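Need tokens for this chain, all 203 residues.
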Amino acid sequence: NSSAASDVYKRQVQEMPENQIVFVLTTILAAMTHNPLIELCIASSEKNNIKNLEVYLKKALAQYFHLEMSDVLTDIPLDSETGENQLDTSESNTDQKSEVVDLYKRVRIETFETENAIIQAFKTVRLIIDVSRRPNIYIQIAGISAGIPQINLTTSPYIVDKKNGLILQEISELNQAITYYFNGLRHWNESLVYSVRQIRQYT
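Here are the structure tokens for all 203 residues:
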């Protein structure tokens, strides 16, 4: 299915400023618009972050589609009790609003409270994006074990640029980095092969 084909995992980090979070989300939404196989999973370690993440996502949708925030809130309300996307397209009588809703359906915001839950989620993930200044080391190691390329903004002992991931110099390079891994399978396969070598080296 499309999720298994190319599911993007983005780790939400508390220390990132709001404008950077919205920029990252907008960049990913743009990639999703151009590639219908890409889906986005926004991960949080705490349930009380869900509402904030939902607001950031809707701000990114409003910015990407040049809409007022109020329009986005009307078209794609969130069920605060379940945290699920409750989509009502009855009033979405324009092509643009329909496109917003369709894109929104391809985004999941999930809570991963245990390391095992993360490992299970990685079974359908094809790219990890962690552009915080302090990338999560456990996620990096788990990603390597699963053979998933990773995009980071900070160097680490685990991610080697253009081997098992990409290290961005600037956050503005994110779009190119996403394209690097989703434009064909060559770079994704290269990352997988390198990750297998890493696993053999450390086991």
